[in-house]
Inverse folding.
């Protein structure tokens, strides 16, 4: 059982959700596809990149 | 023309208005064509012969009087509760805003189209009704999530249809099926009665065979005009990041279409582009979570259930960061649209994959189609800007290729003008073509 599987099983147990072995394998695949970009996003320097406080996707940003 | 569904949408409307085409005969011919062609592509999941005839009897003499259209299985209509690609109603039947707009324009809602399960994919392979096939090769996917709407138009079962686009779900299947489709600016088409109206990414829009029909249908859906103009001298930004790692046949066709247009082009960079895909995926995965409980997932396939459980495990800070990326992209686009009129890029990085294997082959290697596709389109949903697919060629295997045009907020008319300009510059070759199965 590697760190990812511990995270999946432990996290879902804490959330009260059952998990089957084949679901762990599907989630492992999803993590292979999107995990690296997720980690890059989590580690990116985002100082100064502020969210819009009045975000409205129907128009251009005002701030 | 031997069948009225071989006529463009606008020609159907014009001939009905002039008395040259009987709308009752058109409706009957439409149902017969659906019966004939739908088994090959599985694009349509329900038709409404009695209700449609009643709708025709009561239709106002609007711009689409008597013209049959189809809508995605995601919208309320009085004839059927939307099922969102699942085997059970996901909301009540009723009058969505798009139904009322179509009805008020005189259109006839004749059918509901197939879609990817819960709108959660770009291939259309996962659906309670079975996969959506591609009119150019039914062994290949029709796309998603609005795949049935694209495939039905591509197979000439219906002249126009309506879909929804939360991460590319109009533009991507339009590219796969060789039809025109536009995702308007966020909320240009009202969201009431759309099962996914909770999404801060979703926009509703039409599919049709070409830009003129798309304009007509969008005007009906948005209840306002998008007047045509001259698009012969546009300044076009080329976001190089989205042209990288694209199938060479797709790249060649898209560049050829741009060359034919004769526009002035310049390479541009969208700040935050490297995180646009993951930011889109995070928003799509998490915004829907409060809507779908486990009772909804009881009949879902294993992949959908596992995806939902995976979403429970995503750290909250990821969504916070995704929202910063979103604002970064929006600010960058606002700046870019001060220098260029539109952006142009391949709608999909590779043509429609096989239903049996939805990986696509890119220069970097094989990749799930969803992952490749959302890079091309998701940033438009994050930003809220309009984007549309314009048919631009075929691969050597005969599958359609699409060029995506993206405009600034509220610039739908300019995009439609640009699409019409490309159509003319390419002698309408890519919008007039009929899939070989139907010749």
């Amino acid at each position: 059982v590697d760190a990812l599987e511990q995270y999946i099983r432990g996290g879902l147990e804490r959330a009260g959700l059952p998990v089957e072995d084949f679901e762990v394998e599907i989630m492992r695949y999803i993590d292979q596809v999107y995990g690296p970009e997720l980690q890059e996003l989590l580690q990116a320097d985002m100082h100064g990149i502020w969210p819009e406080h009045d975000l409205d996707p129907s128009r251009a940003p005002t701030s | 023309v031997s069948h009225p569904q071989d006529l463009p949408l606008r020609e159907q409307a014009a001939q009905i208005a002039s008395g040259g085409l009987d709308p009752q005969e058109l409706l009957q011919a439409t149902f017969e064509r659906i019966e004939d062609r739908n088994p090959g592509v599985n694009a349509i999941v329900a038709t409404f012969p009695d209700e449609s005839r009643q709708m025709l009897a009561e239709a106002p003499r609007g711009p689409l009087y008597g013209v049959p259209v189809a809508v995605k299985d995601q919208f309320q209509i009085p004839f059927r509760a939307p099922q969102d690609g699942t085997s059970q109603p996901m909301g009540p039947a009723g009058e969505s805003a798009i139904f009322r707009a179509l009805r008020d324009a005189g259109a006839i809602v004749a059918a509901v189209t197939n879609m990817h399960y819960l709108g959660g994919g770009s291939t259309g392979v996962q659906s309670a009704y079975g996969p959506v096939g591609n009119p150019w090769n039914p062994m290949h996917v029709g796309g998603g999530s609005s795949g049935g709407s694209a495939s039905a138009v591509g197979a000439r079962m219906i002249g126009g249809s309506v879909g929804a686009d939360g991460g590319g779900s109009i533009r991507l299947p339009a590219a796969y099926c060789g039809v025109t489709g536009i995702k308007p600016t966020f909320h240009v088409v009202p969201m009431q009665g759309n099962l996914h109206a909770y999404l801060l990414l979703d926009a509703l829009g039409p599919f049709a065979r070409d830009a003129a029909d798309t304009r007509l249908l969008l005007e009906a859906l948005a209840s306002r005009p998008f007047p045509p103009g001259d698009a012969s001298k546009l300044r076009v930004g080329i976001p190089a990041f989205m042209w990288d790692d694209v199938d060479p046949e797709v790249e060649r066709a898209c560049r050829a279409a741009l060359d034919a247009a004769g526009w002035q082009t310049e390479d541009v960079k969208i700040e935050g582009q490297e995180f646009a895909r993951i930011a889109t995926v995070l928003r799509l995965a998490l915004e829907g979570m409060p809507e779908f409980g486990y009772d909804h997932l009881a009949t879902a396939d294993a992949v959908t259930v596992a995806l939902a459980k995976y979403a429970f495990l995503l750290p909250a800070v990821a969504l916070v960061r995704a929202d910063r990326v979103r604002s970064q992209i929006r600010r960058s686009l606002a700046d870019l649209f001060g220098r260029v009129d539109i952006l142009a890029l391949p709608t999909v990085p590779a043509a429609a994959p096989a239903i049996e294997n939805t990986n696509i082959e890119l220069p970097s290697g094989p990749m799930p189609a969803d992952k490749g596709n959302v890079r091309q389109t998701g940033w438009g949903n994050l930003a809220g800007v309009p984007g549309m697919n314009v048919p631009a060629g075929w691969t050597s295997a005969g599958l359609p290729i699409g060029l995506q045009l993206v405009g600034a907020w509220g610039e739908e008319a300019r995009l439609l003008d640009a699409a019409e300009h490309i159509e003319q510059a390419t002698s309408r070759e890519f919008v007039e073509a009929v899939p070989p199965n139907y010749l």
Chain A is about 55% helix and 0% strand. Chain A has a mean pLDDT of 95.
